[in-house]
Amino acid sequence: MISLSAIDRAELTVLLDLRHPLSYLALRPAIEFGAAMSIEINWLPLTVPPLRPPTAVGPDDDRGVRHRRHRAHAIAREIAVYAQQQGLVIRDYYRHDRNDDVDAANLGWLWLRERYPDRLQAYLQELFRGYWSGQLDASRIEPVGELLHSLDADQQSFAKWCVEAGPSMAARLAAELHEKGLFQVPSFVVKDEVFIGRQHLPMIRWILQGRSGPIPI
Q1: Which of 49, 133, 212, 215 fits a disulfide with 89 by CB distance 3.0 to 4.6 angstroms?
Q2: Cα–Cα distance between 201 and 188 in angstroms, integer?
Q3: Using one digit for the tens of pLDDT, what is the confidence trace for 13-23?
């Protein structure tokens, strides 16, 4: 069966979950990295467990509970600081925890990747911006189709694909990514190595440039 992910053929694959704020923080740095390196990024949607909010302090909290709470607060601070630095609006970090349905947005992602790959980065930028600002309902085909139409893509063809080949393709891709052991975002896959988080971009640059010079660690 033909690989849908194309990870084995891509110089760099980036996996993001629209519902995860750390994916949004990684989007612009990844786009800028691809432009600086003159490479075409293989963008893939990946559904991951939700970002959990900090728990309330309880009288029976053990060390593990306290550690998870402190980590949750640290992640929230990271999101706030870096979102401000990038000028991003991120409302409600934990909406993913309520199982937001973004299947329509992911179908738009896969359809555009297959039909109009040169417009995919623009789609992702507007998709994440609209979702996290609360201006886009990513669960419905119609608003996603309108976003595609704004990028001069065929909205009617997309809507038809969503009730025909789209869902099975999305399911096949999800199964393939699961089999490859990919389960966190943002994930960067380069030369069979997986890096979690945008902080690894210097290491990825070093690998893509032939591993010459000192390791950036």
Answers
A1: 133
A2: 8
A3: 999 999 999 99
